[in-house]
Amino acid sequence: MFEFHAWATIWVNDDDDADMDVIIAREDKAIGQLQLTINRHSDNFSFFDLRRTGNGMIVFTAHGLRNHKFTAIEEIFEWIANNLPDSYGLLYTHDDDQENHFVVYRLALGTVTSQHDTLLSPCIPTIEKPCQP
């Protein structure tokens, strides 16, 4: 099984304009473009949500449990890094066919990096009991 959980705070660069209407228009455009990217990868086996929350915060969340590796979630994070580089977030993945650990993808400053998780890994025995003979 392949499990993933993700969140990202979406930021649009506002350094060159103090006009809130201009910034909101940029945010709306970014939300639309990101939603199109999400829609290209959406199916009935995963949950994706993109919304504007309190105080204008824009948040992307995703969760899924699939039979096989789902690279689309990594592609969405890469799209955010390349197109909305002021955004940040985390993606946790676990592929129990391949690994006994979670992999954490960190989105920050326009870059996605990955590393082994240290909080929930190794999965056996941290979150799952070892098989008894």
Describe the protein.
By secondary structure, this protein is of the alpha+beta class. 29% of the residues lie in helices and 34% in strands. The chain has helices at 20-41, 72-83, 123-126; strands at residues 2-10, 46-52, 58-66, 88-95, 103-108, 111-116. It has a six-stranded antiparallel β-sheet, covered by helices on one side. It is elongated and about 65 Å long.
The biggest sheet amounts to: 6 strands, antiparallel
Radius of gyration: 17 Å
Proportion of helical residues: 25-40%
Low-confidence stretches: none
Task: Give the helices and strands as they follow along the chain.
Answer: EHEEHEEEH
Cα shape: elongated
Share of β-strand residues: 25-35%
Distance between the termini: 23 Å
Topology:
Elements: E1 2-10, H1 20-41, E2 46-52, E3 58-66, H2 72-83, E4 88-95, E5 103-108, E6 111-116, H3 123-126
Antiparallel strand pairs: 1-3, 1-4, 2-3, 4-5, 5-6
Helix pairs in contact: 1-2
